[in-house]
Amino acid sequence: MPASRSVDMLVVGAGFAGLYMVHRARGLGLDVEGVEAGAGVGGTWYWNRYPGARCDVESLEYSFSFDDDLQQEWEWTERYATQPEILRYIEHVADRFDLRRSFRFGTRVTTATWSESTSRWTVETDAGDAYDARFLVMATGCLSMPIDPQIPGLDTFAGEILYTSRWPHAEPDLVGKRVGVVGTGSSAVQSIPLIAERAAALTVFQRTPTYAVPAHNRPLDPEEQAAVKARYAELRAEARQMAIATGSRVPRIDASAMEVDDQIRHQRFEQAWEWGGLPFLGAFNDLIIDPAANETAAEFVRTKIREQVSDPEVAERLTPRQVIGCKRLCVDSGYYATFDQPHVRLVDVGATPIDAVTPTGVRLGSEDHEDIELDVLVLATGFDAMTGALDRIDIRGRDGVTLRETWAAGPKTYLGLGVHGFPNLFTVTGPGSPSVLANMVVAIEHHVDWITDTVAHLDRSGQATIEAEPEAQEQWVAYVNDVASFTLFPTCGSWYLGANVPGKPRVFMPLIGFPGYVQQVADVTADAYRGFTLA
Ligand code: FAD
Ligand code: NAP
C-alpha cells in the first residue's frame, strides 16, 4: 500500500458541497484535503454541459448565502442561469476562497476503510494515493452517478453516443445530423429544443411522458437584482422555510385546491403558470397530498400541453397520466413547441419498445420492426440517484462491514448525516435528508454548517468519534417513510424511490419538509446529540 498522507478531514467531491466543506474545515484550523474525479470544480455543473442545461431554482436563490460580500458582488445575468454561468460562479467561489489548492482533481476515491485500532479512515484512490483521515466527508452528490441504460446493442452503434450527464467539453457538432434522444426527464426537456435547432432530423424516444411547466426565463433586470440584494438575508431566511424547492419569491396562498370554486382554482393555476417553473406545485397547499387536488393541477397542465402542440395525436402521446410532481416536475423553455417542427418526431417506446441499438441506429419493435437511422444517439437517461456514487466506493466500517451490505435493502442513515457502523463518516445531503426535494444549495449549507459545528464540538469536549446509534437510525428511516406515505410521492416509479435502476430496492430516499428537518437536527444537537454516540 502507498504511504498515506495524514489529514484531519478528507472531503470527496468538489461540487457546491465539497467546496464549502473545505472552506469551513479550514476555518476550524483543520488540515483538510479533497479528492475529485472531474478535472475541475463544479460537480453537477462541471459534468452536465449539454445544450440548454440550467438551474430550475432561480439563480438568486440557487447560490451560496454564507458570505455576504460574495452574494452582493456576484451578478447573475438570467433568472435561471445557464450551466456555463453556474460553473463560472463555482469557479469564482473556488478562486475567491482559494479552495483549489486543497483538491486532487482527476482522481477517484475507490476504497475507504475504518480502522478500529486508530479510529481513523484509510482512503485509497485510483491514482494510487492513500489518505489517513480522522473525518471522512462524502460530498459525492445525489445526482452524480449516471446510469448505463440496458439497451441491447448499445455498444454496436457506429455513430456517436453522448450522455447528457457526461457531455463532452468540446461541443459536439450536431448540425445537419440525424440525432436520437432517449429520455424525457429534465435533462431531455432542457436539451431537446436546442438539439432540434441544430439537427437535420431529431427523433425523441419517450417511455413516460413528463409534465413540464414553462420557465419564463429572462434576463435579470439590474433593478430587480438590486432589490433582492437589499433584502438578501430576509430572502435567504424565507428560502429556508420552503418545505420543498418551490422558490421563495412566488406569491402563495395557503389554501386547498378543493376548497375553492372552479373559476378561482383555474385563475390560481393560470397565475402559477404565468409565474412559471417549480412554484407551480405550490399553487395550493395540498397538490402533493390529496389525489383529487393533484388531479386538478394535472388536468390543467394536460390542457396546456394540448394547446401547445398542433397535432392532436402527438399531443396525446406527450400527455402524462401519472400524479403531477410524483416524478420531479420539469421546467421548460420551448419543449412542447419543438414537436411542432417538421423534422422532429416523437416515438412512444412505452408502446413500441426499443428492440435494439444497431450499428446504424435504433430498431423499434420486435415484429414488424422499424429501423430509425441515426448519426448521434443522446442518452438523457438519468442517474443512480442518492446512493449511486457511494455504492461505487468500497466503504468498510466497523468489523469490515461494507456500506453496500448495510444498504442492501435500501439506504439507512440517521438524519441523512451519519450511518451506524461508520463512525466519523458524514454524508452531505445523504438519503434520509431533504436533499433533492429542497433547494440543494440551501440543504448543502445546512449540512456543512452542522458537520463543522459537530467537529468543533467533538474537539471542545475531547471526544474522538461520533456515530449514529442503531435504534435512532431505524426510527429515522421509518419516519422518513411515514412522512412520504402521507403524500403522493411514492405513487409512481421515480428515481426518488430508486425505481429507475433495475434491482435497486424501492425505498423513498429523501425526507419531505426542509424546515421541520432543520428543527429536528437542531433539537437533536441541543439534546447532547441524541441518537449519536460520542466517544
Ligand atoms: P455534485 O455537484 O454532484 O458533486 C459531487 C462531486 O463528487 C462530482 O463532481 C463527482 O465527480 C464527485 N465524486 C463522486 N464520487 C466520487 C469519488 N468516488 N471520487 C472522487 N470524486 C467523486 N438542484 C437544485 O436545487 N436546483 C437546480 O436547479 C438543480 N439543477 C440540476 C441540474 C442538473 C442537470 C442536475 C444533474 C442536477 C441539478 N440539481 C439541482 C441537483 C444538483 O446536483 C445539486 O443542486 C448540486 O449541484 C449538488 O452539489 P454537490 O456538491 O452535493 O454534488
Ligand atoms: P430522469 O429524470 O431520471 O429522466 C430519465 C429519462 O430517461 C426518463 O424519461 C426515463 O423514462 C428515460 N429512460 C431511462 N432509461 C430508459 C430506457 N432504457 N429506455 C427509454 N427511456 C429511458 O433523469 P434526468 O433528466 O437526467 O434528471 C434527473 C434529475 O436531475 C432531475 O429530476 C432533476 O432533479 C435534476 N435535473 C435538473 C435539471 C434542471 O432543470 N435544473 C435538469 C436536469 C436534471 P421513464 O420515466 O420511463 O423511466
How do the helices and strands line up, and which of them pair or pack?
Layout: E1 5-12, H1 16-27, E2 32-35, H2 44-47, H3 68-73, H4 83-96, E3 103-104, E4 109-115, E5 120-125, E6 130-138, E7 160-163, E8 178-182, H5 186-198, E9 201-206, E10 212-214, H6 222-230, H7 232-239, H8 262-275, H9 291-308, H10 312-318, E11 330-332, H11 335-338, E12 344-348, E13 354-358, E14 361-364, E15 370-373, E16 376-379, H12 388-391, E17 394-396, H13 403-406, E18 425-427, H14 440-460, E19 466-468, H15 470-485, H16 514-526, E20 532-534
Helix pairs in contact: 1-14, 9-10
The chain binds flavin-adenine dinucleotide (FAD) and NADP nicotinamide-adenine-dinucleotide phosphate.
Can you give a write-up of this model?
The chain has a domain at 5-145 and 384-529: 3-Layer(bba) Sandwich (FAD/NAD(P)-binding domain), CATH 3.50.50. The chain contains 16 helices and 20 strands. The chain has helices at residues 16-27, 44-47, 68-73, 83-96, 186-198, 222-230, 232-239, 262-275, 291-308, 312-318, 335-338, 388-391, 403-406, 440-460, 470-485, 514-526, and strands at 5-12, 32-35, 103-104, 109-115, 120-125, 130-138, 160-163, 178-182, 201-206, 212-214, 330-332, 344-348, 354-358, 361-364, 370-373, 376-379, 394-396, 425-427, 466-468, 532-534. Strands 1, 2, 3, 4, 5, 6, 17 and 18 form an 8-stranded mixed β-sheet that branches. The protein has a 5-stranded parallel β-sheet with strand order 7-16-8-9-12. A 3-stranded antiparallel β-sheet has the order 13-14-15, with no helix packed on it. Bound molecules: flavin-adenine dinucleotide (FAD) and NADP nicotinamide-adenine-dinucleotide phosphate. Flavin-adenine dinucleotide binds next to helix 1, helix 2 and helix 14.
